[in-house]
Amino acid sequence: MAELKGKILAGKVLVKPIIEEKTASGIIIPSSRKDDAFRGEVVLVGSALPDVPMEVSVGDIVVYEKKFVPELTIEGEEYLLLSQDNVLYIE
Amino acid sequence: MAELKGKILAGKVLVKPIIEEKTASGIIIPSSRKDDAFRGEVVLVGSALPDVPMEVSVGDIVVYEKKFVPELTIEGEEYLLLSQDNVLYIE
Amino acid sequence: MAELKGKILAGKVLVKPIIEEKTASGIIIPSSRKDDAFRGEVVLVGSALPDVPMEVSVGDIVVYEKKFVPELTIEGEEYLLLSQDNVLYIE
Amino acid sequence: MAELKGKILAGKVLVKPIIEEKTASGIIIPSSRKDDAFRGEVVLVGSALPDVPMEVSVGDIVVYEKKFVPELTIEGEEYLLLSQDNVLYIE
Amino acid sequence: MAELKGKILAGKVLVKPIIEEKTASGIIIPSSRKDDAFRGEVVLVGSALPDVPMEVSVGDIVVYEKKFVPELTIEGEEYLLLSQDNVLYIE
Amino acid sequence: MAELKGKILAGKVLVKPIIEEKTASGIIIPSSRKDDAFRGEVVLVGSALPDVPMEVSVGDIVVYEKKFVPELTIEGEEYLLLSQDNVLYIE
Amino acid sequence: MAELKGKILAGKVLVKPIIEEKTASGIIIPSSRKDDAFRGEVVLVGSALPDVPMEVSVGDIVVYEKKFVPELTIEGEEYLLLSQDNVLYIE
């Protein structure tokens, strides 16, 4: 995946959604409510917000909720701009 | 239960729900409102939030409310991602 | 009443409801709005919240409101988990 | 009036409502909107809340609004549990 | 106007409404929306709230909005209990 | 325009609306949504609010939104009492 | 583009919308929800708000959301006045 040159704001996490269902580490994406939990790779993180450390790093594989999450097309690729608290689990 | 390698965010508590009704320590799960209080074992905790110490530890058995609690399937097991204030009682 | 081994979170108060109407100290439970004010004995208190000292102690008899108060069955006994601000009067 | 042995929480004011209409100091209770302003004697005050000094003292005669004000019967007497900001005027 | 002996809480302003329309300083009370702006003399002020200095003094003539403003009758006179932010202009 | 002798509260800005459409500096008032952006001259400013510096000065020409903006007639002139965040642009 | 002489308030970002769809750096504006993400050039920025550093600079090309964004015509040109958190991505 080409490294992005741009920046995102404090407290934000840009992920590249992972589509396939089951991976080596045994994570099955969809929880009992299929449309709630998704997986993706972190490609960009913003700085920390006051009092809220940034706990996610570029390269992490995360499970996240898609609540109020804008979609972005950058250099032909589709990304999702999460707030850190959309992240449920960092593998 | 296999130890999880991943992480969750500050203020969060990941529990493995306990299904059976009555246990050695005499706790009967369902309160008078059957669907309100549940029991589970804590498998992961996030760090403390500013001004809110993390009072729950891995291994605790907790009674909790299921309000806005996302379900997660990790390595084939079902978990619930609580916020600490979903925890009603730490046995 | 058996002493509880468990813990509750900061700012919380666990009470054992007192059912009978009139007691030695002359407190009549139900105020003019019968379903609003109740009495109970405090069996557990959480630690203080930031800026909000815990003003209630184990053993206090309190008059309280039942707004958003989850019920818990612990070791066969019924309890109510109050927030401190549900407490109207400490006898 | 018997002195109450109990306590109320920080920021609260317990009053004994005064029923008669006109008093020596000339205060006529009901403002143009009869059901809005009432008078009573302060019998108990809580401690100060953070950043909000307790400006009312036991024995003060106050004019107050009855918004979200629980009623309490203690030792056969009827009281109202105000928040300090229900108090409009301290005579 | 007899000086009032009582007190009001922090951040509050007690005014005696001025009824006549035009005064020496040329202030015409009612703005284009007749029922929105009124004039009155300040008879009592509370202390400052944390971070909000009290900018109004006894004796000031103020133009104010009547939003959520309780009316009080004290010693036979009608007053209005403003919050400071009801005050639009201090003449 | 006669200088006003009065005062307004912290964080407020009193403007004299400018009616004509186009001015020397080329500002055309109405944005694409005609009723949203207006121009006026600042005649009075309040002091700064805690953490919010007052960025507008008397004599500035500003473009502003008319959301919840009370109108005032002072000495026969019509003014608008803005909050600073109604100001969109300072020419 | 003529440099603007004016100022905007703390936390605000004034952009000149970019209309054409695809640019040299490969950014395709419209995300899957066509009306959500737009591109523009930053022509003015306000100072930082308390606790929220200003992360955008004049000359940046940004992708932004059009939520509650007033439009302004200045010197015959159309601009949008964003809050910094309308900015999704800084190229």
UniProtKB/TrEMBL annotation, chains A, B, C, D, E, F, G:
Family that this chain belongs to: Belongs to the GroES chaperonin family.
Origin species: Marinifilum breve
Name by which UniProt lists this protein: 10 kDa chaperonin
Keyword list, A-Z: Chaperone
Pfam family, one: Cpn10
Role of this protein: Together with the chaperonin GroEL, plays an essential role in assisting protein folding. The GroEL-GroES system forms a nano-cage that allows encapsulation of the non-native substrate proteins and provides a physical environment optimized to promote and accelerate protein folding. GroES binds to the apical surface of the GroEL ring, thereby capping the opening of the GroEL channel.
GO molecular function terms noted in the UniProt entry: ATP binding; protein folding chaperone
Domain of life: Bacteria
SMART domains for the chain: Cpn10
Signal sequence range: none
Subunit structure comment from the entry: Heptamer of 7 subunits arranged in a ring.
InterPro entries on file: Chaperonin_GroES (IPR020818), Chaperonin_GroES_sf (IPR037124), GroES-like_sf (IPR011032)
CDD domains from the UniProt entry: cpn10 (cd00320)
